[in-house]
Amino acid sequence: MESNFLDSFFYKNYKTFKETRGFLDGYVLHEYLKFNKDIKTSLEIGVYKGAVFSLVAETTANVNCILIDPDMNNVKQTIPHDMFKNTICIESKSDDINWNDLPQFDLIIIDGDHVQPHPTNDIRNCLSKTKNNTIILLDDYVEDEMYISRNFLKKNGWTPWLKLDQMEWWSKQELMPFIHYILKKNEIQNFSRIYQGGIDDDCKWRISSPQAIYENVSIIEKYIK
Question: Are the C-beta atoms of 106 and 135 separated by less than 8 Å?
Answer without folding.
Answer: yes
